[in-house]
């Protein structure tokens, strides 16, 4: 007899990514279509979709809506993926939901991500969620979250990532991201260049009303250093200012997208201010203490993300810093390393122990021009850091193993593929 627990669920990661909506729609249907119990916002993009999702959820919560937030991947605990009103759902509640979803998922041969998307919908419906912010997992058109019918779609940025699945050009990837657009349903994007052109054309064909950052939406961001930004935002809803603790110029843009999304959903500017100031997004330009110094954690795992991290360190005047680096072998490692090499004083190479996708640290040496060291574990990488400020990047799975070490927490101890 099958036990529908996390061991069972995690074993399904090995079946890989299986794009398509038929199975997840069937799964949701047999569960009674729990997604119909709440209004959903889909947030897609290559980088920034997690922080934008977290910021929008914080704003909706500040307005008084009972708000769900579904994100992926998690850093340390599976239950991090399911948040209601800013609080991670208890593991017991999540496992209860898995016990309900699992038997149907097994019969339909649903994939890992299809299962957790349906699980999020079931959990949010059971929790009485009114509005759910759903981060798109991969692409958009064929991602499991696209089985939901959004009241608003947000596409943050478009860059080269997951090219083996989504295509190896920006227009191809942008077309996949555009799959979350709907006829006559407001959409907002921070995309630029040829990717924006693709989104605009798709919106025209679908008659999707589209707000574009730097066009219908205009922003000016004033740095508050390590405390974040003051953002002046103007759009069809008027003009107002707010503060965000998100770091980096890209953080300010993501905060602006979230604020504009909230205004499109009818949230007033004062609630936007309150929610924006309260947003927290672990593992993304997150500062944690370590032995009297500070480690800046950032899950920069593709070239655009790594360049944004490097630009942020320069803008903050951080100088060259020691870097802990480990990455998945299937990423553009050369592109990521090139961006980070320019801001690193030395590189401590390691790997996420729970990720079979992790690259061999020895193979990463040649990607850097600064001095490198190889250590066997994330704990050893922390021990190798010199005093002062440092940064860790390259893989969210690595960040997910470093973070509990810094906080004195236990990790899940389960193999991670997705």
UniProtKB/TrEMBL annotation:
Q: Which cofactor does it need?
A: Mg(2+)
Name it. Answer: tetrahydrofolate synthase
Annotated EC:
6.3.2.17
Species of origin: Deinobacterium chartae
Q: Name one GO cellular component term.
A: cytoplasm
Tell me the GO molecular function terms. Answer: ATP binding; dihydrofolate synthase activity; metal ion binding; tetrahydrofolylpolyglutamate synthase activity
**NCBIfam families referenced in this protein's UniProt entry, alphabetically:** folC
Q: Does the keyword field hold Ubl conjugation?
A: no
Task: Say which family it is in.
Answer: Belongs to the folylpolyglutamate synthase family.
**Domain annotation Mur ligase C-terminal: ranges:** 283-385
UniProt KW keywords = ATP-binding, Ligase, Magnesium, Metal-binding, Nucleotide-binding
Tell me the superkingdom of the source. Answer: Bacteria
Question: What PANTHER family has UniProt attached to this entry?
Answer: DIHYDROFOLATE SYNTHETASE-RELATED, FOLYLPOLYGLUTAMATE SYNTHASE-RELATED
* Gene3D superfamilies for the chain: Mur ligase, C-terminal domain (3.90.190.20), Mur-like, catalytic domain (3.40.1190.10)
KW Nucleotide-binding (keyword) present: yes
Residues covered by the Mur ligase central domain: 43-262
Tell me what reaction this enzyme catalyses: (6S)-5,6,7,8-tetrahydrofolyl-(gamma-L-Glu)(n) + L-glutamate + ATP = (6S)-5,6,7,8-tetrahydrofolyl-(gamma-L-Glu)(n+1) + ADP + phosphate + H(+)
């Amino acid at each position: 007899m099958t036990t529908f627990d996390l061991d069972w669920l995690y074993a399904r990661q090995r079946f890989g990514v299986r794009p398509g909506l038929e199975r997840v729609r069937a799964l949701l249907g047999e569960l009674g279509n729990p997604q119909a119990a709440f209004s959903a916002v889909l947030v897609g993009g290559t980088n920034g979709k997690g922080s934008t999702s977290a910021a929008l959820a914080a704003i909706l919560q500040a307005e008084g809506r009972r708000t769900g937030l579904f994100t992926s991947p998690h850093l340390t605990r599976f239950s991090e993926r399911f948040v209601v009103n800013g609080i991670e759902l208890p593991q017991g509640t999540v496992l209860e939901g898995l016990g309900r979803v699992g038997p149907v998922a097994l019969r339909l041969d649903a994939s890992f991500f299809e299962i957790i998307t349906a699980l999020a919908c079931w959990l949010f419906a059971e929790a009485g969620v009114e509005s759910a912010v759903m981060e798109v997992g991969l692409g958009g058109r064929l991602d499991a979250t696209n089985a939901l019918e959004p009241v608003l779609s947000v596409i943050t940025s478009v860059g080269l990532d997951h090219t083996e699945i989504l295509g190896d050009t920006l227009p191809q990837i942008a077309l996949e991201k555009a799959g979350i657009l709907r006829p006559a349903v407001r959409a907002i994007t921070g995309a630029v260049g040829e990717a924006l052109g693709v989104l605009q054309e798709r919106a025209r064909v679908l008659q999707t009303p589209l707000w574009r950052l730097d066009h219908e939406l205009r922003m000016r961001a004033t740095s508050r250093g390590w405390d974040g930004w003051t953002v002046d935002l103007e759009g069809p809803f008027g003009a107002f200012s707010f503060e965000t603790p998100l770091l980096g110029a890209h953080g300010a843009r993501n905060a602006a997208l979230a604020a504009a999304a909230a205004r499109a959903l009818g949230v007033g500017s004062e609630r936007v201010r309150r929610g924006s100031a309260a947003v927290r997004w672990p593992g993304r330009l997150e500062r944690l203490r370590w032995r009297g110094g500070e480690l800046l954690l950032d899950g920069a795992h593709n070239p655009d993300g790594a360049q944004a991290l490097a630009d942020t360190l320069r803008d903050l005047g951080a100088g060259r810093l020691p870097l802990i680096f480990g990455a998945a072998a299937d990423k553009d490692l050369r592109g990521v390393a090139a961006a980070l090499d320019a801001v690193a004083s030395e590189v401590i190479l390691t790997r996420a122990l729970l990720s079979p996708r992790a690259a061999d640290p020895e193979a990463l040496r040649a990607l850097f021009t600064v001095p490198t060291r190889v250590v066997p574990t994330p704990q050893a990488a922390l021990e190798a850091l010199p005093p002062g400020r440092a940064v860790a990047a390259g893989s969210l799975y690595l960040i997910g193993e470093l973070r509990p070490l810094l906080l004195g927490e236990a990790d899940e101890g389960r193999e991670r593929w997705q």
